[in-house]
From TrEMBL:
The keyword rRNA-binding appears for this protein: no
Protein origin, superkingdom: Bacteria
Alphabetized UniProt keyword annotations: ATP-binding, Membrane, Nucleotide-binding, Transmembrane, Transmembrane helix, Transport
Source organism (scientific name): Maribacter algarum
GO cellular component: plasma membrane
Domain ABC transporter: 370-603
Compartments it resides in: Cell membrane
Protein name: ABC transporter ATP-binding protein
Length: 607
């Protein structure tokens, strides 16, 4: 129930709907019991057992409540019918119809109000999960499969709605229906009602035994669903590679293995769950059968119970079966919901290691320099950077070069706080970036990566991502600086053209120029370029390089470069090897040293 309590906190904003649901459920439970009790006067009329009641009965206590209700109804039937049995029958039937109408009206109103609570909780959990997913560091997703996260925000949250939140409907309605019904049953025959209670613990024990393994089986189903959603996500992301290597059958085999496991887990879960209803119903009918024998004996042999009371009593006894079955199903719902809530809360309660200190500085400008002081960092076991130092003065372009794995991109990840350093500090104008708000830090920076990350939206929306409410003129100006305006103008709908999933309707060079336009529009004082031209052909590279140079003008830049021809104009070039600076200086100075940088230049020239 711990998970249930944690999920219930999401219901607080919708408490008024919960109270209205409880109110109408109380009325539903009351009228559900009364609608069956009202059968007694009708049956008395049919069996000609009713005697004219000429005086209103007096209520003397709960013990005679059934006699009082019977006498009260009998008095009004007598008054209305004036001895005409058909008139009396019509009155009683009308009463029963009104009671059943009110019962169903209150049932509808109870469900109407709980709908707002259930869907509101569903919306808020999903919103909180999405917010948490975007807040968690990039390192979190190197361990988690994306498909599993998608499964948690979709099917697991739905499972919470179907299982946990459906219990809210049952908490009041079903127990009260049983309570009111049993009270009326006691009013008719205490001896017969005590007989019912002998079988309730027996039924409860059997139902509990069936439900014990449901949480484990439900957990297996939900985990496997995350697994095959991950396979779908990876397949769609790498469809070109899958097709190019004729790997369709291999991926299908992996996917079908996952769905086969899902099939087996689901069968076990549903077959165990499906056992609840027939077993519950059989136990209920067993109770009814025993009651028929015991109550029939009271009517026929002992003459201690009227036939009309007995028939109404049987109706009331059957009226307990439906809520009892619902409660037994709800207990399975808690088991299933526990597994789903555990997976959802695992994300919601994950502590974000990239956190902000209390009263973090909201830095809005950049005045002097970025300094990396004695920093060390490792992704897992081995250090990528060790005791690394670097200064980037304002207005300077500092280029980082070196072989793959030398730690170039890591510096970009650390400067933007996608990861935190293990040791040392990164400072902007002498302020540790950990003391700044993440929003203000990232507002100071623009990022252009090797992989142009674009979204399935229009050109205008993609460029305007970093600046809310940017005007069309600003967007066009940014596109012109990025050498993108010309090709955008030739698109079918210009800036309103949808560029497809990940911008796949555009070429590599066009995508990269859109990424640059996005960074230009944001207009940050610090620019980080992470191998922004390495994936381009010569013509595209020339256009992109020209765009980058225009963007970097009078701006502080950290340029991570693979192609050395693109960084010759940098103020300082830093050569890295295994996370250590081996050389630094201008292009000419480094060539004159005749060291590592010169070798890299010569290797690329030969290439």
């Amino acid at each position: 129930m711990d998970y249930f309590k944690k999920i219930l906190r999401f219901a607080k904003p919708y408490a008024k709907y919960g109270y209205l649901n409880i109110f109408f459920n109380i009325l539903y439970a009351l009228f559900s019991a009364l609608s069956f009790a009202a059968l007694i006067p009708m049956l008395n009329v049919l069996f000609e057992k009713d005697k004219p009641v000429t005086e209103l009965p007096v209520f003397t206590g709960i013990g005679n409540s059934m006699d009082y209700i019977e006498g009260y109804l009998g008095y009004h039937v007598t008054q209305y019918s004036g001895g005409d049995k058909m008139k009396g029958l019509v009155l009683v039937i009308g009463l029963i119809l009104v009671l059943f109408l009110l019962k169903n009206l209150f049932n509808y109103l109870a469900m109407y109000f709980i709908t707002f609570l259930r869907n509101g909780v569903l919306k808020d959990i999903r919103n909180q999960m999405y917010e948490k997913i975007t807040q968690l560091p990039i390192s979190y997703y190197s361990e988690k499969r994306k498909g599993d996260v998608i499964a948690r925000i979709t099917s697991d949250v739905l499972e919470i709605q179907h299982s946990f939140l459906s219990i809210l409907e049952l908490i009041v309605r079903e127990p009260l229906t049983i309570l009111f019904t049993i009270l009326i049953m006691f009013g008719i025959s205490g001896k017969l009602t005590l007989f019912v209670f002998i079988f309730i613990p027996l039924a409860g024990g059997i139902i509990s035994w069936i439900g014990k393994s449901l949480k484990k089986q439900s957990d297996d189903v939900q985990s496997e669903q995350g697994q095959f959603l991950s396979i779908v996500e990876e397949t769609l992301g790498g469809l070109r590679v899958v097709k190019a290597f004729n790997a369709e059958s291999k991926f299908f085999k992996t996917f079908s293995s996952s769905t086969k496991r899902f099939f087996d887990f689901s069968n076990k879960l549903l077959n165990r769950q499906n056992l609840a209803s027939p077993s519950g119903e059989f136990l209920g009918i067993l109770v009814i059968g025993v009651l028929l024998w015991f109550g029939g004996k009271m009517v026929i042999v002992d003459k201690t119970l009227d036939a009309s009371q007995f028939i109404a009593y049987m109706g009331l006894a059957y009226n307990i079966l439906t809520p009892a079955k619902s409660i037994s199903k709800a207990s399975y719902g808690v088991k299933k919901g526990n597994a789903a809530a555990e997976r959802v809360l695992e994300i919601l309660e994950t502590i974000n290691p990239i956190s902000e200190i209390e009263n973090a500085i909201d830095k809005s400008d950049f005045d002097s320099e970025i300094e990396l002081k004695n920093i060390s960092f490792k992704y897992e076991d081995d250090y990528v950077l060790k005791n690394f130092n670097l200064k980037v003065p304002k207005g300077h372009a500092v280029a980082l070069v070196g072989q793959s794995g030398s730690g170039k991109s890591t510096i970009a990840n650390l400067a933007t706080r996608f990861y935190d350093v293990n040791d040392g500090t990164i400072e902007i104008d002498g302020i540790n970036i950990k003391d700044m708000t993440k929003k203000s830090l990232r507002d100071l920076m623009g990022l252009v990566t090797q992989d142009s990350i674009l979204f399935n939206d229009t050109v205008k929306k993609n460029i305007g991502l970093g600046k809310e409410n940017a005007s069309e003129e600003e967007i066009i100006e940014a596109a012109k600086i990025a050498n993108a305006h010309e090709f955008i103008s030739e698109l079918p709908e210009g800036y309103d053209t949808n560029i497809g999933d990940s911008g796949n309707k555009l070429s590599g060079g066009q995508k990269q120029r859109l990424s640059i336009a996005r960074a230009v529009l944001k207009n940050p004082p610090i620019m980080i370029l992470d191998e922004a031209t390495s994936a381009l052909d010569t013509e595209s590279e020339r256009l992109v390089q020209d765009a980058l140079e225009k963007m970097m003008l009078n701006r502080t830049s950290i340029v991570i470069a693979h192609r050395l021809s693109t960084i010759q104009n940098a103020n300082t070039i830093v050569v890295l090897q295994k996370g250590v600076i081996v050389e630094q200086g201008s292009h000419e100075e480094l060539l004159a040293k005749n060291g590592t940088y010169r070798k890299l230049v010569e290797m690329q020239s030969l290439g």
